[in-house]
Write a structure and sequence with these properties.
Layout: E1 11-15, H1 20-31, E2 35-40, H2 43-57, E3 62-66, H3 74-84, E4 91-94, H4 109-137, E5 140-145, H5 158-177, E6 183-189, H6 197-200, H7 216-229, E7 233-235, H8 238-246, H9 252-263, H10 268-272
Parallel strand pairs: 1-2, 1-4, 2-3, 4-5, 5-6, 6-7
């Protein structure tokens, strides 16, 4: 796969690029002739994706970086590797993330600390490194993956929801700090979506996982459009917009009760009667 030397196209770095939203972001940027830096834990899956994008979009410039962002050292290693290769990142998409389902007093602390490292620390670390370069050039864009649960507490997914609340607050604070510069920071807030998230979070049997799910293509497109417009945040999906709006009106106790219902395992009685996702 060719490097990015000697061309004038802009370059995007996408974390968690091997599937789900990350894969759809890669397609959107490839279609718009960006150079791609794709980061994920699975090198084989990334290479497969890279060859597929090359065939579909006649992609000429691609960099594959195998990295596990639940490791504290990974962001600096990624940054140093790209610096060594002379790759300038114009757009940063902090997409990688994970959750864990269950009562907090019963779940594994090690997994939750890894989630905090992945969902918060790596986002902060990568943003710090690449944003400093963007400020020096006075140009750049950043997209951070938040969530509908950024607006409300989520029992049975407590750590994940708290990390996404951090991402939203962090993103909107940076947007204000950078308001006088040619740099934008956008938060994408999707709801339950048809990705591997629920499986990896051990939440496949929850009501949320078995209700209506947004398509990764739709969510990525909403995020991409908001990023290009320089919006501070976008909630993907009409029902999710309603839910986000309701979060400003309802007490946190009511929001927590609603989210707990969604994150509980779906019963046999639930399966008899279709329900709408709240």
């Amino acid at each position: 796969m060719k490097t990015m030397e000697g061309n004038n196209r802009k370059t995007v770095l996408i974390t968690g690029a091997s599937n789900g939203f990350g894969l759809e972001f890669a397609k959107l940027f490839a279609k718009d002739n960006y150079n791609l830096v794709l980061v994920a834990r699975s090198a084989d899956r990334l290479k497969e994706l890279g060859y597929s994008l090359q065939d579909e979009y006649q992609l000429q410039n691609l960099c594959i970086v195998q990295s596990d962002l639940s490791r504290p050292e990974s962001p600096q290693e990624i940054y140093d590797e790209l610096k060594q290769k002379g790759i300038k990142v114009d757009v940063l998409v902090n997409n990688a993330g994970a959750g864990l389902h269950g009562f907090f007093h019963e779940t594994e602390l090690e997994r939750e600390l890894e989630i905090i490292q992945l969902n918060i620390a790596s986002v902060v670390h990568l943003t710090k490194l690449f944003l400093q370069d963007m400020v020096a050039r006075n140009e750049g864009k950043i997209l951070n993956l938040a969530s509908i649960v950024s607006f409300m507490p989520s029992p049975l997914m407590s750590v994940y929801a708290a990390t996404k609340a951090f991402v939203l607050s962090f993103t909107e604070a940076l947007q204000n700090e950078l308001k006088d510069k040619n740099i934008t920071v956008t938060a994408l807030c999707p709801g339950a979506s048809d990705t591997y998230f629920f499986k990896r979070a051990d939440a496949e049997n929850t009501r949320a996982a078995n209700g209506p799910l947004s398509s990764p293509e739709e969510v990525a497109r909403d995020g991409y459009n908001a990023l290009m417009k320089g919006e501070s945040r976008v909630v993907s999906g009409m029902m999710n917009k309603v839910q986000a709006g309701a979060s400003n009106l309802l007490p946190d106790s009511a929001l927590a009760a609603t989210m707990r219902y969604q994150m509980e395992e779906k019963s046999d009685e639930d399966r008899k009667t279709p329900e709408s996702k709240l």
